[in-house]
Design goal:
Keywords: Signal. This is CHRD domain-containing protein. It is a single chain. The chain has 244 residues and is α+β, with helices and mostly antiparallel strands. It folds into two domains: 43 residues; 186 residues, Immunoglobulin-like (Sandwich). It contains three helices and ten strands. The longest helix is centred in the N-terminal third of the chain and has 40 residues. The radius of gyration is 27 Å and the shape is globular. It binds copper (II) ion (CU). Copper (II) ion binds next to strand 4 and strand 7. The site of copper (II) ion has 6 residues, from strand 4 and strand 7.
Length: 244
């Protein structure tokens, strides 16, 4: 009897080990198939979304070029992600070090008519004195739509990024796209909800420079001590271009 019991139990053990192996193989097979499926889905869609069913990620690239001969350049990426997030990344150089640099998405939103395309102002927009102010640029890039600060809430301006001692900014900010659209809707008599944010009609403008006699003073000049820091002065601009 003892031997027989032992034999049975050994057999059961072997069966158990064998099924565990089969289970493991089955699980790995499933995992492998799932991986292949996900790779197939990566064509424009990031897996793991849910808040905006049926909507694929939209991505816009921005090349930031100098305004006011600032020497400020950079790039930006704007994403409306499948998980419902609106995310903006900016990488800028040539800025006044250690100073705050407001940055915004600008554009025109008008009720009951086609929205006008925002654009970066030409040098002539600076007028007789040659210095392009925030106001002189507005006929081209329009009013501020979204502050690229720590909250990205329209009509507020919280904490804008401060440039490093090397004059660079690497910024990343996020907000839910749905709350952004609601805020836009509230600003524009409910006309925005049925549209998307029409990002291909928008521009990003970066601000902030030292000025003397209607010209930007480079941050490394010893004249900076006599200059006025104009936080609103436009120093770079770029149009959003959708990546498809
Ligand atoms: Cu701005």
């Amino acid at each position: 009897m003892k031997n027989n019991t032992k034999t049975i139990s050994t057999t059961m053990m072997r069966k158990a080990v064998s099924s565990a192996k089969m289970l493991a193989a089955a699980v790995m097979g499933t995992f492998f198939l799932a991986s292949c499926d996900q790779l197939g889905d990566l064509d424009g869609v990031i897996p793991g979304g849910g808040n905006m069913p049926g909507k694929e990620m939209k991505m816009y690239k921005v090349q930031l070029n100098p305004l006011n001969n600032s020497g400020v350049t950079g790039t930006a990426t704007v994403m409306m992600k499948e998980n419902g997030e609106f995310e903006v990344i900016t990488d800028i150089e040539g800025l006044v070090p250690n100073m705050v640099h407001p940055q915004h998405i600008h554009g025109f939103v008008m009720e009951n008519m086609a929205d006008k395309d925002a654009m970066c102002p030409p040098p002539s927009a600076g007028g007789a004195d040659g210095l392009l102010t925030l106001e002189e640029g507005q006929p081209f890039y329009g009013p501020i739509l979204i502050p690229l600060d720590d909250k990205l809430v329209p009509l507020t301006a919280e904490n804008f990024p401060v440039a490093t001692s090397a004059g660079t900014i690497s910024y990343g900010g996020k907000v839910m796209t749905s709350s952004l659209v609601s805020a836009f809707d509230a600003m524009h008599n409910g006309t925005q909800t049925m549209k998307d944010l029409e990002l291909d009609k928008r521009v990003i403008v970066i601000h902030g420079a030292y000025v003397i006699n209607n010209a930007i003073v480079p941050a490394n000049s010893n004249r900076v001590q006599y200059a006025k820091y104009m936080a609103t002065l436009p120093v770079a601009c770029g149009e959003l271009v959708e990546m498809k």
